[in-house]
Design goal:
223 residues; mainly alpha; two-stranded antiparallel ribbon; elongated
């Protein structure tokens, strides 16, 4: 077991994830196709590259936020958490490559769309596995029952994966660009669900504090 400040503890692991994600996003923007001339028409001609980069960027930011939200709920990490994070970063490092394929094909190649879709599904699965590993590692800190689960809930993350699977299948059999729409929908769903869950957690904390204050007041009156 490696507590927060160990050789590769929670803080150092979080910093390493930040660094890899920053580099990955930078490589994505380097791959954006350049317009042939300085005019609005030329910029419009590379719209597919800009759209692909924008959606990929927000997908990655959504996952980065989820990881930091998860990090705020745990105390320590172990080898299981570290290695699931390494696999997550390994698969995430392919994002610039698959994004460049989508840019070059202008959404028209269904095979590239499938590769992009499968990669986003694998990354989302890895994120779910990180959460499960963190819950197992921090059992003694998380409590029992519902309190033993880290937010966002597995149901939210599973639905995110389901959206991407549907998007990939539609891209295979009907319309290749649909995977980009599916990834954007999954991002919006994740963002909304996370905000709702955070508000619920904040309300629960406020309610617990208020309950503790009432108990203290009653004890003071009894004394």
């Amino acid at each position: 077991m490696i507590v927060g400040g160990g050789f590769l503890g929670k803080d150092k692991l979080g910093a390493f994830i930040d660094a890899v994600y920053a580099i990955t996003i930078t490589i994505c923007i380097i791959n954006i196709e350049k317009p042939t001339s300085i005019e609005w028409g030329a910029l419009w001609s590379v719209r597919d590259s800009l759209i692909t980069y924008t959606i990929t960027f927000f997908m990655m930011i959504s996952m980065w936020i989820q990881i930091h939200h998860l990090w705020n709920q745990i105390v320590e990490v172990d080898n299981g958490v570290i290695w699931t994070c390494m696999i997550f970063l390994f698969t995430s490092s392919f994002i610039p490559y698959t994004t460049s394929l989508m840019m070059e094909s202008n959404f028209e190649n269904r095979y590239f769309a499938v590769v992009y879709g499968i990669l986003t599904i694998i990354i989302s699965l890895n994120l779910l596995f990180i959460q499960i590993a963190c819950e197992k590692c921090n059992e003694k800190y998380l409590g029992k029952g519902k309190n033993s689960k880290i937010m966002p809930s597995r149901a939210v993350m599973s639905f995110d994966i389901f959206i991407k699977i549907v998007g990939t299948l539609i891209s295979v059999f009907l319309w290749p660009p649909f995977i980009i729409i599916a990834v954007w929908v999954a991002f919006e769903f994740n963002s909304l669900a996370t905000r709702i869950l955070q508000k619920k957690i904040a309300k629960k904390i406020d309610a617990d504090i208020h309950e503790d204050e009432l108990i203290e007041e009653n004890n003071d009156e009894e004394c």
